[in-house]
Write a structure and sequence with these properties.
The structure is a single chain. This protein has a seven-stranded parallel sheet with strand order 3-2-1-7-8-9-10, with helices on both faces. It has a three-stranded antiparallel sheet with strand order 5-4-6, covered by helices on one side. It is built from 18 helices and ten strands. The protein has helices spanning 7-10, 19-44, 53-60, 67-94, 104-115, 126-136, 154-163, 169-178, 183-190, 203-215, 218-228, 282-289, 301-309, 314-320, 343-354, 374-378, 388-392, 414-426; strands at residues 120-124, 143-147, 234-237, 244-249, 254-256, 268-274, 293-296, 325-328, 361-365, 397-401. 47% of the residues lie in helices and 11% in strands. Helix 6 (126-136) runs parallel beside helix 8, helix 6 (126-136) crosses helix 18 (414-426) and helix 10 packs across helix 11 (218-228).
Length: 428
């Protein structure tokens, strides 16, 4: 999806619904030209015999040149003037709506292309999902993010406990990732108070909570918040039930709550939701069935990805969907969840919880040369390695590419990741 062609040629791209109106305008100009030509012809045929006004018309209309040369000069000059006038007129009329330095043709081309983009559904949570959305929104506006509701830590946990609403934190990150507003508005939603009664709360979380009280429910709050931020796409909770994530650990202990599971520092045997029969959000179900591409991840395996998949009805809906399903494996291991995991270990854990045959592709980072930041190394993180022999037995196709971010190198780069998904997987 390159936008590097000259702006004057961009208007001629297929699918913009521009050429038909240019042709109609050209027809109108031609008809006007015929009228002018008849008037000039009358002057030529007058009794002045090229004296006075008629003589001037002879030179003005280049009657001294051969007919073919006159036609070429007038067509070239007319077309040039028409294009210049249209370009300047459009810029003059729409300049209040253009950001500094933007070319109108590029903006319009991008808008038309994105509105016709594929229907992509992305499941996940946390920073992994927001990174993916930030990149994929440049390829399509038909984007649906299905977000986990198991978050119970930090500001989200406090608001969830006090006001009995779905945790807003992951939704806030998705809203800002898909936003088309000024950067200041995005910074405002991400701003976290550091003192007083709002200590630890992000402004965006408080905004969503207030919107939920005004509109009457969380889903309407997300839609209205999306309008405020000019969000490109739709954001949906995976379930409308108030769920708690529980992990069964090695040794028989349990860790209750999404935020407490990584802190246990013990291998995780199994995770499940309470209540166990929390039903899939009907809107999320419909989006999955209508999708042309479905992605799961990146994100924390046990606390961001599996809570979505464990919602009742989610796996059957995913298996019924005709769209290819892609698991995006994390770049680095995560302390307390996936210590020392390879790509096949991630797939093994998913299969253990949801059964075999769910994914058509697994997307793996191929660049293991980036140094991890000191904080990640201190936590014992390593880049996830690709063990081909073990991955192949899962029956998935592998897409490998350099998708790691330069900073921090424990995460995916939004542009690299989205380009790989759209060009290596969707195009196939």
């Amino acid at each position: 999806m390159s936008l590097r062609r000259p702006g004057s040629l961009r208007w001629l791209q297929p699918g913009l619904h521009i050429k038909r109106w240019l042709l109609l305008m050209g027809l109108g100009v031609a008809i006007l030209s015929f009228g002018a030509a008849y008037a000039v012809r009358g002057a030529y045929a007058s009794d002045f015999r090229f004296t006075g006004v008629s003589a001037n018309l002879r030179y003005l209309t280049l009657a001294v040149l051969p007919n073919w040369m006159r036609a070429l000069i007038f067509v070239t000059l007319g077309a040039g003037l028409l294009l210049v006038s249209l370009r300047q007129l459009s810029r003059s009329m729409l300049v209040p709506f253009l950001k500094g330095g933007e070319d109108l043709a590029d903006v319009y081309y991008k808008h038309r292309t994105i509105t016709k983009g594929p229907r992509v559904v992305a499941l996940g949570g946390g920073t992994g999902l927001s990174s993916l959305l930030r990149g994929v929104k440049e390829y399509t506006g038909n984007l649906t993010a299905i977000v986990t509701v198991a978050d119970d830590g930090g500001s989200s946990g406090k608001l969830r406990e006090q006001y009995r609403i779905l945790p807003p934190g992951d939704f806030r990150q998705c809203l800002t990732a898909l936003a088309e507003t000024e950067p200041l508005m995005t910074q405002l939603f991400q701003h976290r108070f550091s003192e007083g009664a709002f200590d630890g709360h992000a402004f965006g979380n408080l905004f969503i909570m207030a919107m939920a009280e005004i509109t009457g429910d969380f889903e309407h709050a997300l839609r209205e918040s999306g309008k405020v931020l000019a969000v490109r796409g739709t954001i949906l909770p995976s379930t409308l039930h108030d769920v708690i994530l529980v992990a069964e650990l090695e040794g028989g202990q349990e860790a209750v709550g999404e935020s407490r599971i990584p802190l246990s520092m013990m291998p995780i045997r199994h995770v499940y939701l309470e209540p166990r029969h929390a039903l899939i959000n009907p809107e999320a179900e419909q989006a999955i069935l209508n999708a042309e591409l479905i992605t799961v991840g990146p994100g924390s395996l046990y606390t961001s990805i599996l809570p979505n998949l464990l919602v009742e009805g989610m796996i059957s809906t995913l298996k019924s969907a005709k769209a290819p399903k892609v698991y995006i494996c994390n770049v680095a291991t995560q302390k307390g969840e996936t210590d020392h995991f390879t790509v096949s270990d991630h797939l093994d854990a998913l299969q253990k919880h949801v059964g075999p045959g769910l994914f058509d592709y697994v997307l793996v980072n191929s660049n293991l040369n980036y140094p991890l930041p000191p904080s990640a190394l201190a936590a014992g993180a390593v880049l996830v390695t690709f063990d081909r022999a073990n991955v192949v037995r899962h029956g998935v196709r592998v897409a490998m590419a350099d998708v790691v971010a330069e900073n921090p190198s424990t995460h995916h780069d939004p542009e690299k990741l989205s380009r790989t998904i759209m060009k290596q997987i969707y195009k196939k």
